[in-house]
From TrEMBL:
Top-rank taxon, per record: Bacteria
Record keywords: 2Fe-2S, FAD, Flavoprotein, Iron, Iron-sulfur, Metal-binding, Oxidoreductase
InterPro entries reported in the protein's UniProt record: FAD-bd_8, FAD-bd_FR_type, FNR_nucleotide-bd, MRET, Riboflavin_synthase-like_b-brl
Record bears the keyword Secreted: no
Segments forming a coiled coil: none
Ranges where the FAD-binding FR-type domain occurs: 11-112
Species name: Salinicoccus sediminis
Cofactor(s) required for function per UniProt: FAD
Protein name: FAD-binding FR-type domain-containing protein
A single MF term (Gene Ontology): 2 iron, 2 sulfur cluster binding
Pfam families on file: FAD_binding_8
Amino acid sequence: MGFLKDAAAVFKKKELIFKERRQISGDVYTFSFEKPEGVSWQAGQHGLFTITHRKVKPPTKPFTISSSPREDVIEVTTRIDDRPSDYKQALLELEPGMEMTMSGPAGSFHTDGGERTVFIAGGIGITPFHAMLSELADADIRVETPPVLLYVDGEGKFTYSGELSDISDRGIAEVRFIESSEGLHKELELLEGADVEKYLIAGPYSMVESVSKHLTGTGVPKKNIRKETFIGY
Ligand SMILES: Cc1cc2nc3c(=O)[nH]c(=O)nc-3n(C[C@H](O)[C@H](O)[C@H](O)COP(=O)(O)OP(=O)(O)OC[C@H]3O[C@@H](n4cnc5c(N)ncnc54)[C@H](O)[C@@H]3O)c2cc1C
């Protein structure tokens, strides 16, 4: 009963009040909402966000919460090109004070702490890692073996590049910007034998699956790999 009650609380829809939109790089936008009272989450989790100001098909899509749980906002960061879907067009119409709803946050894509972790992001798959690293940066947490972020983007369009470089300079994480899968494989080779306990991979399906296959091919046990597939890319 307790579990069912908890699950019901997580999936109850929360009203989110829109604050602002920021174009953070190229075609990448962050949508910021006030954090409703009593909502908490683990960095890396996602919510189901529903457009309510007009009819949209489908009205609900999953998005990682890209802000740190220590902040007073719930943020969604997404790529919107010049032919946005109906859903993303509706996101662009939001004005301060308008509402959306969110179910969750939910999901098991987060770190358990205390383990050597390698984060592998493909494109917009950077969002969960941005939440995780911002949380460490906000609290100024430096560990002996910092997490390693391998951030791959074939076009070299690295969202949050300034912020991530700063996090790397402060010794909170080791961040590498990579532009090809060969480059990624080289970086992964360098980490072999580094006693990595968990690999977390986020991004489009083909990228997540190919990196996961590469890792298992080099002997990494499946149980040490966590995946978040951004369906829709
Ligand atoms: C757990 C999870 C977490 C996720 N987190 C994120 C995240 O943090 N950030 C993120 O960006 N995504 C995230 N996603 C993916 C997200 O849910 C969407 O699927 C994704 O952003 C694509 O949305 P879309 O509306 O552009 O998709 P679609 O509707 O599938 O559109 C895809 C593309 O098709 C074209 N298109 C669509 N409709 C039209 C039309 N009517 N006319 C012309 N062209 C059209 C557009 O170019 C559009 O970009 C996540 C997914 C999961 C499962």
